[in-house]
Amino acid sequence: MKLKIPELHNIGKAGVDFIKELLNFRNNDYFKRRFCE
C-alpha cells in the first residue's frame, strides 16, 4: 500500500523507528539488570 502524502509516510516511518528504539532501550535495560547484577 502506497501513501499519497509523503509527509504522512515520513511521520509513520519515524513513529516505527521511535517504537523500535523504545523497545530496544527497554530490552537493553532488562538485559543489563538481569546479567550485570
Comma- or semicolon-separated keywords:
37 residues
Shape: rod-shaped
What would the average pLDDT be, to the nearest integer?
A: 77
Q: State the helicity in percent bands.
A: over 70%
Number of domains: 1
Counted beta strands: 0
Secondary-structure blueprint of this entry?
Layout: H1 6-36
Protein architecture, described:
The chain has one domain. The model has no long low-confidence stretch (mean pLDDT 77). It is an all-alpha fold and 37 residues long. The radius of gyration is 15 Å and the shape is rod-shaped. It has one helix at 6-36.
Concise description?
The chain is mainly α and 37 residues long.
